[in-house]
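WARN no homologs supplied; continuing
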Amino acid sequence: MRRALLAAIVALATGCSVPVAGPTTPDDAAIAKLRDGRLDAFATHKAILFEMTDRLPGARVLDGRWGLEHFAAGIPKGRERGLPALSAALAALQADGTVARAVARAGVRGTDAGTVR
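OK structure emitted
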């Protein structure tokens, strides 16, 4: 169970998306437009931007941010008694470095694991 919970937390914390079926991703179109001058800039999640810069020599990700996404874990209605256990598990995975190690192992850049509230 700990592994499944960790996978869900990392997916939420990193903003990783499900791969798009087919030969291209939406980012491919943006990269092509940046490459040929039809776009001067592109904004999206930092993790995606860093992946895009790997494919665009000379491109860079600007410091700071233009927005912030918050992710949450939830429980079904009627099962509120499980909230303390979920909160404790999330806090423990962050406190012991599990989330940070998983993010690093995945090679995701531009992510802040944040805190459990």
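The first helix runs from residue 2 to 14.
OK
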